[in-house]
Write a structure and sequence with these properties.
By secondary structure, the chain is mainly α. The protein has 3 domains: 91 residues, no CATH class; 129 residues, no CATH class; 186 residues, Orthogonal Bundle (Arc Repressor Mutant, subunit A). Helix content is 66%, strand content 0%. It contains 19 helices and no strands. The chain binds a DNA duplex through helix 11. One of its GO terms (molecular function) is DNA binding.
Length: 444
DNA sequence: TTCCATGATTCTAA
DNA sequence: TTAGAATCATGGAA
């Protein structure tokens, strides 16, 4: 109230804090100046001591003050002072830009389908996420619905809490505004000051809102990692898929790097993604090298299996059917040498093709298909000759990846020479890869 | 419960 | 960009 006392100018008029003379309110021009001073001094004194009085006394005093004829003038002065103060505070608090962290949280919640419009939000986000992670696995639908349900639960909790928060914020703001308006009857409170108070309250509540959003984001992240993390949802490939992959691998043992087309074909046949095919071959190569003894057993098994399958196929179709082994797993295996399935991209011939050819020769000769001699006068013989010329260690795949194993070192890196000797028994190291695109094993 | 197989990921090098 | 290597994490058999 020191300020109030300073409001008196030495000239006897009311001044504001800047020392400007304030307008003379209806104080009665005929009253002596000393008396006016005395009255205002009394009012100020009463205001100063009002807090020392009992509640009843204060109420009575308040009423008296409210009815005092000088009250409006004094109130105006105090309002002006307050306005100046509030302005200075407000000027120091410029409009702040939106909190970037809050914006990030908002964006993420919208992207995840938790915030924003319900229509398709959570479910479509879940669908996209699961579709991306599942790679078309059959059980993805179950996990998708699970994920969707959990996401919907999070969404519901988030919206409930947000509603509570908004309600609490509004209630508290209304309460404070009403309180300030009530108080504005007895003390100068400018509307701008009330606005500022509302802003402060909302800012405080915004911190709570941020926590809510952050917690929700964390929950969504945990949900995603739990449901969509591929490692957690690893499933072994079907037996048939593994068989197909192994057949391809062991038939291309000297150069087990399927081209993109071959990968796509394998992926399609195995019901997995191209990435999974790539992963499988990556793992297979490294694990084959690490445990070559076991791998040899496996390779022998596949070679025998393939030869048997081919023999059965040829036998069932009669000798004239010859090399048409395009159907079935064995067919795929054999077709690697020039059939329809895998040859088109890299023209590589199966490493153990010699075994197969020998087996086929044996079976076909027994079934009267053709003799060893007859082969030399048929297109098959040309193919055979071609293959026999391909004794160069290994070919690179046709797509020419910079990391394709070089012919010189691929044998070493794969120990394929020794392994193929184990398979062939004749040390042929049969690769049969062709640099001539489009050379296909003709049907006999 | 333990151990092994296996699919996926990450990092590094070429 | 791809392959190799190491590693992680899970599934499944013993």
């Amino acid at each position: 109230m020191e300020d109030g006392q300073r409001m008196y100018s030495q000239q006897g008029g009311l001044t504001n804090m800047s020392g400007n003379v304030l307008p003379q309110y209806n104080m009665g021009q005929d009253e002596p100046s000393d008396q006016r001073k005395q009255e205002i001094g009394d009012i100020l004194q009463q205001i100063m001591t009002i807090t020392d009085q009992s509640l009843d006394e204060a109420q009575a005093r308040k009423h008296t003050l409210n009815c005092h004829r000088m009250k409006p003038a004094l109130f105006s002065v105090l309002c002006e002072i307050k306005e100046k103060t509030v302005l200075s505070i407000r000027n120091s608090q410029e409009e702040e830009p939106p909190d970037p962290q809050l914006m990030r949280l908002d964006n993420m919640l919208i992207a995840e389908g938790v915030a924003g419009p319900e229509k398709g939000g959570g479910s479509s986000a879940a669908a996209n996420a699961t579709a991306a992670a599942s790679g078309g696995q059959p059980d993805s639908a179950i996990e998708h619905s699970d994920y969707r349900a959990k996401l919907a639960q999070i969404r519901q909790i988030y919206h409930t809490e947000l509603e509570k928060y908004e309600q609490a914020c509004n209630e508290f703001t209304t309460h404070v505004v009403n309180l300030l308006r009530e108080q504005s009857r007895t003390r100068p409170i400018a509307p701008k000051e009330i606005e500022r108070m509302v802003t402060i309250i909302r800012k405080k509540f915004a911190a709570i809102e941020m926590q809510l959003k952050q917690s929700t984001c964390e929950a969504v992240m945990i949900l995603r990692s739990r449901f969509l993390d591929a490692r957690r949802k690893r499933r072994n490939f079907s037996k048939q898929a593994t068989e197909l992959l192994n057949e391809y691998f062991y038939s291309h043992l000297s150069n087990p790097y399927p081209s993109e087309e071959a990968k796509e074909e394998l992926a399609r046949k195995c019901g997995i993604t191209v990435s999974q095919v790539s992963n499988w071959f990556g793992n297979k190569r490294i694990r084959y090298k690490k445990n070559i003894n076991k791998a040899q057993e496996e390779a022998n098994m596949y070679a025998a299996k393939t030869a048997a399958a081919a023999a059965a196929n040829v036998g069932s179709e009669g000798g004239a059917a010859g090399y048409n082994v395009g159907g079935g797993q064995a067919g795929m295996y054999m077709n690697l040498n020039g059939g329809d399935n895998y040859q088109s991209s890299d023209n590589s011939v199966g490493d153990n093709v010699q075994n197969q050819v020998n087996a086929l020769r044996h079976v076909i000769s027994q079934s009267g298909g053709y003799s060893s001699d007859s082969m030399h006068s048929t297109p098959a013989s040309m193919y055979e000759q071609h293959m026999n010329q391909q004794i160069t260690p290994h070919s690179r795949s046709q797509n020419g990846s910079p990391h394709d194993p070089k012919p010189e070192d691929s044998t070493d890196s794969w120990c394929a020479g020794a392994f193929m000797q184990g398979l062939d028994g004749d040390g042929d190291n049969y690769d049969g890869s062709s640099d001539e695109p489009g050379l296909k094993r003709p049907k006999i």
